[in-house]
Write a structure and sequence with these properties.
The structure is a single chain. The protein has four helices and six strands; from the N terminus they run αααβαβββββ. By secondary structure, the protein is of the alpha+beta class. It has one domain. Strands 1-2-3-4-5-6 form a six-stranded mixed sheet. Helix 4 links the parallel strand 1 and strand 2. The radius of gyration is 18 Å and the shape is globular.
Amino acid sequence: MRKFIQNHTRKITGTIACFDRFIFKGYLPISWAESMERFMGSQGLLIKDVKAFVSDKSERVKQHGRTIAEAAGRPYISLTRKERKEEEARSIAQRDKITQGMICVFTTVEAYQTFKMVPGEKRPHLINARRKCLCLYFYFIDREFGFMHVRIPTWFPSRSRSVSMVMNGSHTK
């Protein structure tokens, strides 16, 4: 972990160490409705086009997840009920004798903070809304950091809630 912090010290505003997890959060600067409206305008798109725009990007993210799993020869699994993803990924790693590299990619539908288009006086506008979203979970075993996952929502604003790692037998997130 020290090496990671040294390599990225200019990009890190602080660190939190705890018994079992580190939390890394990432977001795009279009995480609220007004910024998404400005972004759409900068792309020459109308607010009414947001769903088509976001749907296209969502499909690209899903396809990329499938492509990565396929290239690694690893399973791409759609979870239809609430399951303990970490336990399932560990089970797959043990079953397939994975000691390094990609274990699998899970997809699951989760509640997510996103946008909704609503009518306005002069034109429609976006508001923040909570909806269901397909999320991809990429599980890996890294040579240096150990067991980890990356969660990527497929819908805007594409906030990555966390990267979870296990180092030397102890958990970090």
